[in-house]
């Protein structure tokens, strides 16, 4: 089995000798927000450790086909593999996405990597744009009137009616979301309101009459 690992390492060396320029060595294991995608990369270490970046050719429930140096690689993704951005699933990856893979060469299958970390750089860029747009929408909404912020814990949640009780430090309010309310996660990414649960810590922006808040912005800081 070790022969396959050695053979692949030798193949990478031949590609490099033929003039293929591999990008600088680093690790995609870091989740630092300052990280940026690099050009296409294929690096195989002496122990069979792999760092690869390339373009998704196809997606299944347990693997990706990634086009990188040397051709198409099968990337096996298991339950222990870390998928980034956070909260992403393998089925969220799309053909044509630029991805990074960190893992180990599979010793029983050719051109196959058992992934430890898989990062979708394309999805991360799209998420960044979504957060930027949502932040701007919230700013514009907050400039449009005289409501104010409220923060507390959710109870008596009705996701269909989009209503709940909000227990603040001094008072409990009944909250009704407007039909066009902006609904966000903690990081300001768009949130499906059905994911909200009783006990979540949330912030709302809206006008209050008696003990009822009509909210046009909802942000779940627990998600």
Automatic annotation (TrEMBL):
Residues 53-111, 151-216 form the DUF5666 domain. Pfam families: DUF5666. InterPro entries: DUF5666. Keywords: Signal. Residues 1-23 form the signal peptide. The keyword Signal applies. This is DUF5666 domain-containing protein. It comes from Candidatus Kaiserbacteria bacterium RIFCSPLOWO2_01_FULL_52_12b.
């Amino acid at each position: 089995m070790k022969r396959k690992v050695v053979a692949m390492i030798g193949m990478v060396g031949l590609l490099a000798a033929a003039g293929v320029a591999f990008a600088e060595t680093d690790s995609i294991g870091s989740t630092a927000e300052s990280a940026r995608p690099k050009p296409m990369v294929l690096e195989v270490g002496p122990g069979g450790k792999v760092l690869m970046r390339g373009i998704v050719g196809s997606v299944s429930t347990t693997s990706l086909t990634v086009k990188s140096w040397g051709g198409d690689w099968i990337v096996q993704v298991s339950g222990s593999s870390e998928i980034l951005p956070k909260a992403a699933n393998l089925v969220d990856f799309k053909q044509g996405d630029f991805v990074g893979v960190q893992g180990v060469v599979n010793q029983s299958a050719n051109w196959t990597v058992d992934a430890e970390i898989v990062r979708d750089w394309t999805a991360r860029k799209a998420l960044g744009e979504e957060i930027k747009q949502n932040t701007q929408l919230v700013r514009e909404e907050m400039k449009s009137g005289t409501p104010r912020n409220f923060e507390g814990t959710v109870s008596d949640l009705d996701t269909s009616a989009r209503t709940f009780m909000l227990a603040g430090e001094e008072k409990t309010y009944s909250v009704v979301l407007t039909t066009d309310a902006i609904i966000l996660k903690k990081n300001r990414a768009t949130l499906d309101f059905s994911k909200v649960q009783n006990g979540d810590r949330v912030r709302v922006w809206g006008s209050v009459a008696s003990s009822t808040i009509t909210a046009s912005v909802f942000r779940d800081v627990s998600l």
